[in-house]
Structure formats: structure tokens, C-alpha cells
Batch of 3 targets.
Target 1
Amino acid sequence: MSAMLSSKPLASLSSGLLARKGQAKPAMRPQGFGGFASSAAAALDDLGWDDMGSPEPAAPQTAPTPAPTPAPTPVLVSPAPPPEPEPAEPAPVPPVISLREALAKRIEQVREPKSVSLATAARIGRESAKQTKNGKAAFTLRLDADRHLKLRLASALGGRSAQMLVTEAVDALLDTMPEVAALVAQLPEPKRRR
């Protein structure tokens, strides 16, 4: 009864049982490449554990090396023709691909310019002449943050103002639209102030 009341644990791992750093030894014996033992009964008995506590490891067992056999003579065989692929059913086209193709066709189509009557062009010319007192018109250009940043960087790199860059871009766009130049040629000359 006194043994049950003692505070000492029944089993403990003490420093004497622990291996010191660098002095640990493996619990299993080294295994040879040929197997554990030569007979089947000995192979069942020897599990590889170093349960005997011997300080010297067991001598490694080596399997007898079989005599080399001559290589078989090669047999020449003509290569078989490659199998012909079976005609596969065409895979269904995903909707994304069909939408992409439809958009490409719409982009490739030549846009027919909307016809503007001479009277409408003259009215637009009069309205813009009223707005341009000094020969220049002002308008507000709204850009998203990314385009605005790119415009400012292009301005800094090119050493030109953003207005000059936008004006050049508008001129380049208008040069690709010959119908605009044809309409302007039909308008009467604006009155010039002295």
C-alpha cells in the first residue's frame, strides 16, 4: 500500500537512459543486399533488431553472385506501321470561342460612315465658330486614372504638353477618316476677325 501512495512515477526516462549527442547507435543491425539469411527459417527468425545488445555489429551477409549469362541475340523485326487515328467527333465549341469569333467578324467589317447632310455640317461649323472666339475651342476630356497616368508619363518622357499629345492623336485619327476632310471642304470659309 505504501508503494501506491508514493509520488514517484512507476517508469521514467532518466538522463542515464538517453543517448548523449553524437553517441546514439541504431537499434537495427545493418542489412546486407542479399537478404536477411540464407534459409527461410532463419529469415523468419531474424527481424533485424539489435536485441542482443552486442557492441560489435554483425558481419554483413553477401549473396553469391550468379555467373554472367550471354546476351540474347537480337532478332530483326520490321517496324509496324503507325496506327491510323480514328476519326474523332469534333469537340463542341465553347461559347467563349464563338463569341470571340463573332466579335472578330464585327471588328473586321468596314464601318460605313454615317452620311451627314451639307446643312448639318454647316450648322456644326457655325456652332463651332461661335465657340471659338480666338480660333481655339476648349472641351473637357475625361480619362480614367490609368490613361491619365500614361498621358502624363508620355508628356514627361516626350518633353511635350499633354495637350500637344492629344492634339496629335486627334489629327492622326482624323487623317484616317477621309470623309471628314471631304465634308470640311464643302463648308463655306469661316469669317476671320481682324
Target 2
Amino acid sequence: MNEPLDSLANASDFLDYTAAFGNCTDEKIPFKMHYLPIVYSIIFIVGFPGNAVVISTYIFKMRPWKSSTIIMLNLACTDLLYLTSLPFLIHYYASGENWIFGDFMCKFIRFGFHFNLYSSILFLTCFSIFRYLVIIHPMTCFSIHKTRWTVAACAVVWIISLVAVMPMTFLITSTTRTNRSACLDLTSSDDLATIKWYNLILTATTFCLPLVIVTLCYTTIINTLTHGPQTHSCLKQKARRLTILLLIVFYICFLPFHILRVIRIESRLLSISCSIENHIHEAYIISRPLAALNTFGNLLLYVVVSNNFQQAICSSVRGKPSGDLEQSKKVSGSINP
């Protein structure tokens, strides 16, 4: 008696379910239920306490602050804020993409995820530029050692990130499918024509340009130090470690995510088979936690950047007073701007 009504309800649910995925159903929900919560949980468990320790170390053990310290502190704050969005996403994907926190929190968490991602990219770029100026132009750029310039640069980074990501609050949508509320990410939201151009501009300005800048900065630094006759070997080794670490973060963590996000959006706009579209979607899903792994790289970066940071961590573990660091600060001050 109720079969026609049940069929109509199922058809309606199916249309809601496929609304965000064109003519293809999202076959990757079981994959996302297992892969994303596990990887995000590992990143959160390691990254959150790690960045909390980094922030407390910079605040209580690393005074007076230098330019690199200020940038690293802002980067750690960015990563910590970034990691706070992960528990919501872990719950969402573990429950089979059932969003229970409301439309406002959907937009807020997606916005925060991307805002802190691009803040991290820009702070790493800012740090690379400062390193380049200090090593390549130590005399002409002596004024950048003054903390007010660093504070101003960090403020600009926060503002640029905010402006760049703000359109996501209007583009990201939530929907109801199969009696569940879904909090869609940028690539699965509705206004694809606008999202396509916004994504291209966002990727070009807040990732591709920083990628080129970071690559050029460290290529020049390595080349200069390699051919510098009076360069200390420890400075060369430190520059090599920084270069390898920064390039790994940009080329392995960030690059696949941005390439696959562009391809994912294009695949939804083009008339391609559902099989190909689902494979593209799967690759994009894999790349998303990869981008979040930059927080691991940043934890290593804090150690590599400054010998003072290593000694501050050791003094905290051993319970030594921060005054014991003064001598090491004087020794390494010329190497760590």
C-alpha cells in the first residue's frame, strides 16, 4: 500500500545524495569512514600536544624573541588552531559523513581548516624570505632583525589568509541526504562555476607563488653557502637540513593536495565516466591528510631552526632554569637571526 510512497521517498533521498556529486554517487564514503578518521586522529594525537609544548617553550623559555622566534611562534599557533578542527572532522567521517554540529559550525570548521592551512604556508614563506635576506644580504637588510618588522610581517600574513579564505564561508554548503546532514568540503559544494575560478585564484596566490618563492630562496641560499669560502660548515649543514625539510613540506604535503583539488573540481564540471571521477575523488581524499602532515614537518622545523630551542626543551625536561640558556644564546646568536 505504501510502496509508491516509499519509492518516492527513496528517489528523493537519492537525488539529495547525488546533488553534490553530479550524476555519480559518492562510492568513497566507506573508504573515508576508515582512512580519514585514522590518519586525522594520528595527526591530532601527535600534533596537538607537540605544538602546545612548542608554544609554551617559545613563550617561557626563548625570551628575548628574535625574528625567527616570532615567526615560528606564529606558525605554531597556526598549526595548533588548525589541529583543533580535526576532532570535528574525525567525528564527521567516522559517523559516515553525518554532521551533527549545525550549519554555522560546518562553515566555521571548513573555514578554519583552510584558514590555518594557508596561514601555515604563508608563515613558512615569510620565514624563508627572512632567512634569505639574513644570509644573502646580511648588511643591507640589517633592519629586519628588529622585531617590529617581523611583527608587521606576521600581521600581514594573518590578514592575507583571512581575506583569501573568507569566500569559503559563502561557497561551502551543507545538505541533507539519506536522512543525514552532510558538511561538504569545497570540491563537493554546489556552485561549481564560481568554485572553479575561486580555487584557481586561491591556489595561484596562496600556494603556487609561495612555492616559487620558497624554492628560489633556498636554491639561492644553498648555492651561496656552497661557494662561500668563509662559510662555517655548521651553517651549511643547517641550511641544507632546512632546505630539505621545507621542500618536503611544500612538494610532498602541499603540492599533491592542490593539484588534486583542481583536478577534482574539473572532473565534476566535465562529462567523464563515474569510474574515472571516483578514482580522482579517491586520490583527492588521500591527499587531504597529506596536507595536514605538514604539522609533523613543522615540529621538526622548530628543532632544526634553533639550537636554543633544542636546549630549551632539554632544560624543561631536566628541570633546569631558563637562565642556563643565556650562554648558548650568545654563542648561537650570530647563526640564528
Target 3
Amino acid sequence: MQDYIDKNQVEIAPETPVNESRTFYLPHHVVKKQKNNNAKYRIVFDGSSHSPGHQSLNEVLEQGPNLLPEILATLLRFRLHKQAIICDGSQAFLQLTLSEEDRDATRFLWFRTEKDADGKTHLLNDILIYRFSRLPFSLSPSPFLLSASLRELVSKNSDTYPLAAKQLEGNIFMDDFVMGVCTEDEASALYSEVKNLMALISLPLAKWATNSQRLRGKWQEENVEFKAITEVLGVKWNTDEDTFQMNDEDINQNLLKPATKCLLLKSVTKFYDPLGLFAPTILVGKIFFQDTWLSGVQWDEILSPNIAKQWNKWISELSSLNDISIPRWIGLSPSSDYSLHIFCDSSERAFGAVLYIRIQEGKTTKVQLLCSRNRLSPLKRITLPRRELMACLIGACLLNYICSNTSLDRNAATLWTDSTVALSWIRGDPNRWKTFVCNRTTEILHYTTPSQWRHCPGSQNPADHISRGISPTELSSLDIWWDGPDWLSQHPDNWPTESDSLKEIPQCTAEARKTKVQPLCTATFQPVINASYFSSYTRLLRVTAWILRFLKNCKSKHRLFQELTSDEIEKAKDYWILVVQKQCFSVEIKALEKSMPLPAKSKIARFNPFLQDNHLQLGGRLQFAQATSEEKHPLLLDLMVLIILCNFSYATLTCVCITWVSGLFFQNYDRIIGFYVDVKL
């Protein structure tokens, strides 16, 4: 608190507030953080406290959007560069000044202090009202204000400090700077640019750490303090070996306590593993905790001897995780060829996916574990093929997340599963499957393509360990987990192949939708246009011919654009003959189509009609006559239609007499009047 006062980060508040309605008093207390044998104390101001019936300060403040990058994405980018640098903005929030009119909202009570001759601070019994002149960390908009200020600083000075601007974009989490470059020269240049850039706002940088030996030498010359073992966003980093390690929280002390459900939750949540490097071991603790829910154990109830024995055995082996070191740098360089490989698997207890990067530099091939994700199976049991599909979905989402937040190419990815059923679902049409499978395969295919999915044997699937769990002592020597299957570092010709194409198996077809045929159209005898709107038969045929050509052009790649041909006019005439026959003799046509006898009341039943190319034609004794087929079996039309057609024929053949026209016309058409066939005009 005295440090706040000495640095003018807080000040004595005036007796009369500038604005009474914007005055708030912040309660505060001390938080002790115990780590190993060291204790660290800090003051916490509570902006969320409130009196009964009133709002807290954080509730009335505009929080602002979240500008912080995701921790996993930042750590993934941190692993891509050979030279890594981190630092911390010292009291970064307190470098931002509060407006005079807003300071009374951050009032708090503290003792009057004085210093003796030795410079030691003493508290007096006089209580004063202080207020912040700088931005306190405890307010809800504080993260946004700091992030927005740093972004604005980087953006305005990107031309002067291009390397720093590029590295800091998306890599500042609160006041932590996480950066990486490829060479030693770039590391030295980056350090100078970042330091000079932050000096523009008087932000001192501390807690420096790097694996660059040249930069470390420079720091020693400049008396810059740096650590060999530090933390990157909570992950332990040994800069001498450039490796990640499990945080050495001494969890073995829980062996001395009775095993309860509450203790299980407290112990399991202590593990911080955002990259999922130790997921197979942590899964065991999660399964233990889920078992307590299934057995109905209360929070403070002592576990059964069987579960307690397994729990204590797992706890006692956790110290072996401290001996595991994972390379921070995955070995990727600008000249490297790489491919991504995601393995997916599921079991009765959990499902998940693990991602490896295969890097080829010349004749050398190296496989590195990049990250993993897993989930416990839901308490509501679902079939194993469905769980396998959920594991594939996690793999697809993990690939999308990594490629969206890094420079890695999603097209260089191959996804592996040992489930032939899930593979068949992914390679099939999503709309073919029931809702559960359809929704998940649709999302999988949104991030991947069917050709990216391959089958691998279950015994060679490293994701098996994040779906079943493994003891801490076995994890350190589990090569298939850290380096992937042996064949992955070999030539692709040695990778697993599918001997036969996937077949329709019962588990796969069980998720198929039942096919329901729904009529998309209904039959109708109504013509496409109303013939009564046309006074000219020629015009009716031409308009009909144009419509028929349009429909044909819609279905064909080779379209017609020239004038109408005689064949198209004949097709238009034929169309109207079919329309008229279906309107006048629909009952007879339906009966003939079903090979059934005509109704007794039909006007044409005695003339033995038949269908020829969907046309209703006259039968009878004329079939034995010496005449053409059209003359022996004329088309049947209604009387009024025949009169119109005959008038048309006479109008177009005005040079001959009407008797000759009618004889020529009725060789092709006939009409019905009552029960008689009349072929005279």
C-alpha cells in the first residue's frame, strides 16, 4: 500500500466528491498465494461488492469487448519459433491514468502513514480516504482498457518498430508478452524494439526469459535480470533445456487427508495443462471423480475402500510427472515440409483426439506431439459408434482451431480413426443419416473433406490413451504418445492402407434415415397456356412451340436460338392434341392405360379405341382397309375442336374447294357426336 502512495498511484481524496452520484468505496483485503515453500501477498480491491439493494461498481461500468487472445492459441504460436522471448509489464494497469472526474468511484479507506529516520513506514490511528489516480486491476473494464491501449500503441508505431508490432499482435495476454522468432539476430532486434516501444508509455518490462544464448549474454552485460526456469501463461518453461514441464505443485500432501469427493475435485482441478500434454494421466483423476457421482457419494463422505485405494495409488505416482520434459520448439523452420496428423478414438469412459506435426527436413523426419483434447463420456450412455463419431468431431474442431490461430495449413492435415463405422458416416452423404449422426458429420465436413480421413488399426492409435487413461509412471516411457506410431515417421508407402473399400455394415445402416417418397408434382390436364386467348390457330402453335423450346433449353447445355422449325410446330400441334384428348376422354384414357375395359356409358366404347404413343386412336373395321395407318386409325377429337381445325385448314388452302379440304382433313382426325361417327363437314 505504501508503494502505491510513494508512486502517486493513489492520492488522498478531497472531502467533497466531484460527483456524489459517481462515488464508490472499494473494500480490500490481502490474498496469500502459497507456492512450494514461498508465500506471496498482494492487495485485492473488490469492485464487485455492494450493499443490500444497490448495484456494485462493476455492474454499472461498461466492461468492453474481450480483446485478450486465447491461452491455447498463444501457446501454440509460442511453440512454432526456435527463439522464444517472454516478459511482463511491471504494474501495467497502474500505468494508465484515470480521469479526474472518475477517480471518486475508486475511493478506499487506509491508515495515515509516516516514515521514521530509517525510512521504515509506520501506521497511525488516523484513517484517511484515498482514491486511485491510476487504473486498478480489480475493475471489470480494466483488461479491456489495458489491451486497447497496448493495441493502439503498437498500431501507431508499427512503421517505427515493425518486428515488435508483428510479434506483439495477438500475443499480449493482460500484461504478459509472449513472442518468438526464428534466428538469434531477430531475437536481439525484437528485444530492443519491444523495450523502446514500451518506453514510449513509460511501461517498465520485467521477468525476462529466453532460450537465446546470444540474448542472454546481452542481458548479462546490461544487468537485466532473467530467469532460467519460469512460467509462460502458467506453463512451466525450462529455458536452459527449452522444454515444458509439469508444474511441481506438491499434490502428494493430499495423501495425508481422508479421501472424499471434495478432495478429489480439489486435486484434479489443480492440474493446469492447456496443451493437453499430460491428458492421459489427468483423465484417470477425472474418471475417479465421475465415479463418485455415479455412486451417489456426498461431498464430505469418505470414499469406499476400493476407490480410495486406487485414488491414493494414483496420487502417489503423480510426482513422476515432474521428470517429464517436452520440447517447446516443435522443430519447424521456414524451409521445412510438414504435415498434420490427428488421431481420434473413444472408449466407454472418454473420447478425444491428439494432434501431431510431422516435419521433414531433407532426409530427416521428426514427429512431435502438438496438443490434444478429450472429454468424459456423458452419463447418459450412447452407442460406441456414436462416441467414435464424437471423437472425430473433436479432432476436426481441434484442427480448425489450430489452423485458424496459427500459420499451419489445414490442407496439409490427415485425420485417422480406427472406427470403420464413423469413417463410413463421414464419407457418406450427411442427409442420409439420422439427426444425431447428420448434425455431427455435417460439422466435421465443414472443417475437413472426406478424402482427409483414413483408417488406422486400433492398436496403433495413440488417441486410445486419452480415451482410456494411463498411470503417471507409464506416461513418461509411452513412446507412441510422445512421438506417434512408428510408421508415421516412415515413408507414406508404409502407412496403413484399407485392404477393401468400406462396406455397408449393420451399425452404419442402422443410422440411415427411412426413405419417405413425397410427390413433388401432381398430374394435371390443364394446358400451360389458355388457348381461348388466341384468335389465330397459327399464333397458338407458334407460342406453344416457343414455350416448348424454352423448356428444352432449360434442360440442355446445347441451346437453340434460331427460328422455329416445322418439327417444332408439329410438336406443338401434337401437344394440343394430347391436351384435348385428356380433357375430353380422360376416363377412357385411364382405363386403357391400366388395360381395363371402357365404361359402358362411354361414347367411344363400341369403336374399339386404343392408345398409340399416348394418343387415343380409332379402331374398328377400318383396320383391314387398304389405306395408311393415319387413315385407318384417325385421332379422336371433340366436335368443336374439329370444326376449328377444319376451318383453319380451309383458310390456309383457299385455292381448292371445301369438299376436297374436308376429305383430306378427316383422313387424320375424327370426332364423336352421340353414338355416331360423322366424317362429313
